[in-house]
Amino acid sequence: MSGATRLWPLLTATHRYDKSISTHGRGMGQIIEAPILAYLIETPNGRILYDVGCDYRKIHDPQLRARHYENGGSGFGAPDMREEDRIPRHLARLGLAVSDVDVIFIGHLHFDHAGGLCELRACGCGAEVHVQRDELAAAESGEDGAVFADEAACGPFHVTDGEYDVAPGVRAIATPGHTAGHMSLFIEMPKGPPVLLAGDAADLIENIEDEVAPGGCWRGRHEQAEDSIRKLKALARETRAEIWPNHDMAFWRSLRRFPEWHE
Q1: Which of 16, 20, 208, 214 is the least buried, fewest Cβ under 10 Å from its Cβ?
Q2: Could you write out the three-class secondary structure of 194-205?
């Protein structure tokens, strides 16, 4: 048996922002509410977390919030994150501890995807943390305002290059553009079609259908981001997989609600 046995979408926060952040050249002045999702993937070979959400402290500590989200911080404003949205709380509802996670796969190092790393480490999570070499180098350059330096340093990291099998039936797919080393994840499912977790290669269904890049791309590489969307669509056609965008509220509401799972 390969691939996932169960897949849980985890709502780790919601975020209100200008739609043009998700769709290059479109939606300026339109405020959308977006889910910030992570995923717990159970396989016969262990448990994988795809992304880990935000750092709860930076949102709820007034000084940290001011430094990172206000007064010239990220420029995005702070997400809305509740106590129950923290990854350890999701795991506890399943009867699990952070030590029950074997691999953390970081699609990219932006604050809403990698922010929970330090908390997981502090809680005793010893999982391998997979990050692409190009992603880590770009984060360490300081050029990307959506990367918080302390989160990008919260290793040790298992540094990877290119595409590879994270576990049998779970494959890392290179989808750069939004960030230098952005990775999506292809997951074989036991009953339904395969799932392609797009991450921020496709925030919204609109990104996929219209092949429009996210608004923010590493060094303006919008064409590369569009190529990555087309790559995901070609893989989905070849394998009959479903592409799951990461910040689409209507799409998230169509998924099974935690603690229910997909299989």
Answers
A1: 16
A2: CEEEEECCCCCH
Whether residue 1 lies inside any domain: the answer is: no
∠ CA 245-169-157, rounded to 5°: 75
The reply to whether 262 falls in a domain is no
| pLDDT higher than threshold 70 for residue 73 | no
Taking the C-alpha atoms of residue 42 and residue 166, their distance in angstroms, rounded to an integer, is 12
Rounded to two decimals, the pTM is: 0.96
Domains of the chain: total: 1
- Domain-embedded: residue 260: no
Average pLDDT, the chain: 96
For 54, the token pair is 């935000």
Helix, strand, coil percentages for the chain (3-state, nearest 5): 30, 25, 40
Of 52, 85, 33, nearest to 199 by C-alpha is 52
Which distant-in-sequence residues (6+ apart) come within 8 Å of 222 by Cβ? 24, 177, 213
* 259 lies in some domain: no
pLDDT in tens, 97-152: 999 999 999 999 999 999 999 999 999 999 999 999 999 999 999 999 999 999 99
Can you give the CATH number for the domain in which 190 is found? Answer: 3.60.15.10
Q: What is the pLDDT of residues 5-15, one digit of tens each?
A: 999 999 999 99
